[in-house]
Amino acid sequence: MNTQIATFLSKRRNWAIPYTVFMFVFVVMPLVLIFWYGFTDADGTLTLANFKKFVTSSEAVNTFVYSIGIAVITTLVCLLLGYPAAYILSRADLNASRTMVVLFILPMWINILIRTLATVALFDFLNLPLGEGALIFGMVYNFLPFMIYPIYNTLQKMDTNLIEAAQDLGANPFQVFTKTIFPLSVPGITSGVVMVFMPTVSTFAIAELLTINNIKLFGTTVQESINNGMWNYGAALSLIMLLLIGVTILFSSDSNNSNEGGVL
Question: Across the chain, what does the average pLDDT equal?
Answer without folding.
Answer: 86
